[in-house]
Amino acid sequence: MTSAGHKITARQRWTPTPVQLQILERIFDQGTGTPSKQKIKEITSELSQHGQISETNVYNWFQNRRARSKRKQLGSSSNNAESELETEVESPNEKKTKPENLLSGQNPAPRAEDLCFQNPEITSELHFLGVMSNPTTFNGDEHLSGKMGMPGSYNIYDQAGDYGMAG
Amino acid sequence: MTSAGHKITARQRWTPTPVQLQILERIFDQGTGTPSKQKIKEITSELSQHGQISETNVYNWFQNRRARSKRKQLGSSSNNAESELETEVESPNEKKTKPENLLSGQNPAPRAEDLCFQNPEITSELHFLGVMSNPTTFNGDEHLSGKMGMPGSYNIYDQAGDYGMAG
DNA sequence: TATGTATGAATGAATG
DNA sequence: CATTCATTCATACATA
Lengths: 167, 167
Description:
2 copies of one chain form a homodimer.
Chain A: H1 18-29, H2 37-47, H3 55-69
Helix pairs in contact in A: 2-3
The structure holds a DNA duplex (16 and 16 nucleotides).
């Protein structure tokens, strides 16, 4: 822990408290995507009671939320090589004690396709499937954070349907 | 942690194989800088042949690569700027694991406010806004002036008077 | 085993 | 509103 100097440097970045998040999500879920400024003010007012927050934060939050909401899109193009049900959990016993540049820069990696993911011995106890939901009884919105495809998993996208890129 | 001390962590990070890395670096080095969505798909397609991977991963990789690249260059010309690591978060109480999706909601024991950059007095009173949906409301008001109002610190970037809404 | 470093992923903010 | 940048966190991974 180092107990380094705990600078009072507050985050430049606003961090919504769970309570604020709850409220925001609630409002967002209620519909009307981006609330008007008037609404923003009201929301900010309410949220400010739970912590520091500004109208800009609220606005940004909604904007980001909206953008992120687009997840579950990005239909696979015609060409998409996936669906590999390979549980290639061979035996990456190879320690390959990487000195310091084995995984950096070009490296004649010998048959590296096998050691893509760290030895997943979890295949045995891979029962939990994101059931970590908390019984918070809050509005079941739509935010779902999938992850990247794992050997044995199925999820594909998570961040947003489209990460962007100009066409 | 040997006895059922496992968390429901099902979020293993995608680990690019040396081969994938090589391809990615090659593309990145080619100057394609920000590959378009289509490009991402192609790359993902190609890389998926070498191991599990998703477009999101590719996208993130490029994003991180660029950011990291920029960061690397810093601290040479003018001012020095090291200390990239270091979690200088004061951590008033605890902040090791980020629950992210975990919400407290109206939990009888709400004590998560300590996550924000400020330290609320924890009034812990769920007022549950009265900012309900406001029918027929477009933004037509004047600009909104609401920065963040950091207690003691101000935002380094100018966020403009309004967050850029209706023009 | 514990710690440090490297890197992918999440999110808030900026920009166009 | 769409896209990209910047910052932070969590986790993999190498090392002591």
